[in-house]
Amino acid sequence: MRPSHLALAVLVAAVWGVNFTVIEIGLDHFPPLLFSALRFLAAALPAVFLVGRPKVAWKWIVAVGLVLGVAKFGLLFVGMDAGMPAGLSSLVLQIQAVFTAVIAALALGERPTRVRLLGMLVALAGIAVAAVDEGASGPLGAFALVVAAAACWGASNVLTRKAAPADSLNFMVWVSTVPVLPLLALSLLVEGPSRDLAALRSLDWQGAGTVVYVAWITTVFGFGAWGFLLRHHPASTVAPFSLLVPVFGMSSAALFLDEPVTPLRWCAAALLVGGVALTTLTPRRVPPTPPAPPRTPAPTAPIPPAATTRRPARRAR
To answer: Distance between CA 56 and CA 167 in Å, rounded?
Structure first.
């Protein structure tokens, strides 16, 4: 990987890690479901008019939009609004790699190797340590919501694999059009129109900046740059950089939000990152290809015996 591509991969990981701190700040300005709806609305407009027509079937766009946009981000934003710390959220979400492997095994028949199974157990041990740490200092219900968000992310990864979009930016922009109305409807039902209107009326530059960051920087730039890297390098080369996301997430939360990083949280981080590395960076078990049956030579037509030529009779003179 050339130095410019290496720097871009680290930059994307930093952007995605800092995103959790920005979400925490944005939740001080918006109800969680409204904030998530505004995020996808800003990500879709005006980009949807610039990326061209969808390049995959609409059924995949709608499915990923509902699972990733409505379920995953809805649960994440609600969980963080309920008290889940930003740095810990960036860490716990990495368990999506385990959910992805499990769902892919059930839905796609991808049998994990022993190393991957070991990685899943290590990552789950990290989740257990993180739960103990959060249970001592914060609400376990919010922790459970973020774990559920990670499960939805794993399901959306499998759906995206089935969709196999050739252009990840085009796909992500069109996916962003799907969650807007469902999230707005949920916000009106759950959070109430008065709370939503109050948030929009009191909108300031900081609130608007959080929407711009999570929509254009995290979604449009982040997924566009990630797709660019995947087009130029093998996935096994690009994927390890995603392990830097919780590093930037926990660091930025400690720096800007004064979130404490306890010894238990460091232990959970080591287990989770190590387990996810084993789960995602080892090759999938490919079922052996049965040997091809021996080819039977095609029958050849019998060679006719050489014809006997008769010399023409000499004409009498």
So the answer is: 9
